[in-house]
């Protein structure tokens, strides 16, 4: 690891904007929050994966991975970040380092050649260059190559120094934010600037979620100048320093960007959520109040309240047919970060009971919000072993599991409905319309007649009961042999 990268990582571990970090003593703060990676930990995302996730939704640039082919294959567009225009971000571009490049030390030359080729072929406004473990270990200086290429070729080349071995996916998110602060944000001026310009940080337009909330701002005359980085354009991000307000959607990922933009350009920020009716309304109110405090007309607050009243009434009218069927249903929420509390709020609005929520990758602020929402009934867990989760679901502790794709098979084996709530999903749940979609998907999953069928005993099993193991995991009755 280079000295510059070590210094950057140490700085991120001492993040003043993080409530959890600020509460630590001087000695503990220097250790940071990252846990040492163990073999297989990359299945949850390495630093390179986190950086690629954070920056790939910038849709009109080339994302060039400097490393072996497998790094790009593992990190390519695994989040369904949608674009309303350019498709350049979906190209899988890599230098594909070979053993000969490593032995002969030709990695930097290969990188410059690749940069030159993609600029000549695609003429992008910028090229983002990602370091991976192999070139970082052999000492390739992607910063120097990018600086030389930018000067020689006339196109900004942005080094993203986040090799996988330096830490977790969350650290990679922050290193990506540092790359934006060091090389992108503030380097261009916007063509138009208004008193109603805002940035949304930590929103990646997964399955088009940004498009569900942007019309709400447009109805108020508020312009989303830049979304960092969902459905973003390079020029929007480069001129994001001229916005009046920053809304932070996921502080775990890009809190460093929000804090430093406030320090450098005086842009205030707040953390909000677009999941759930009340949280969406709160976010709109917060944006309006901050804009008015920064010079926008005062009638913006009244217009915001009128829009909220109309949208809430429309959303509740569409949700009403489902409320009776969903009320009282028990949910096990196994996710993390901002969704650990924002989805809880959305579920409780429907009268559903959250029997437990995971707080993986959640900050102390996230955990406090869970306690505020759930009160004394807050049941938070860091992680649940698959066998224990299986036992809970099979006992009937929850009627449905909301989680990511990696735990879906636990629910399916327990014959319990499952709904994808993580980034791999294909449905958008943000804003008022997103809440309606979430309710419809929950009702569809819970009322699907397949569950009654798979739970029904086979003809040869009728009259039999299941034996339970000592650890409360059921041993299923084996199928009868033919003949």
UniProtKB/TrEMBL annotation:
Gene3D superfamilies: Nitrogenase MoFe cofactor biosynthesis protein NifE, C-terminal, Nitrogenase molybdenum iron protein domain. PROSITE patterns: NITROGENASE_1_1, NITROGENASE_1_2. Pfam families: Oxidored_nitro (PF00148). GO terms for biological process: protein-containing complex assembly. Pathway: Cofactor biosynthesis; Fe-Mo cofactor biosynthesis. It comes from the Bacteria. Keywords: Nitrogen fixation. Residues 46-445 form the Nitrogenase/oxidoreductase component domain. One of its GO terms (molecular function) is nitrogenase activity. Signal peptide: none annotated. InterPro entries: Nase/OxRdtase_comp1 (IPR000510), Nase_comp1_CS (IPR000318), NifE (IPR005973), NifE-like (IPR049939). Belongs to the NifD/NifK/NifE/NifN family. This protein may play a role in the biosynthesis of the prosthetic group of nitrogenase (FeMo cofactor). This is Nitrogenase iron-molybdenum cofactor biosynthesis protein NifE. It comes from Komagataeibacter melaceti. The gene is nifE.
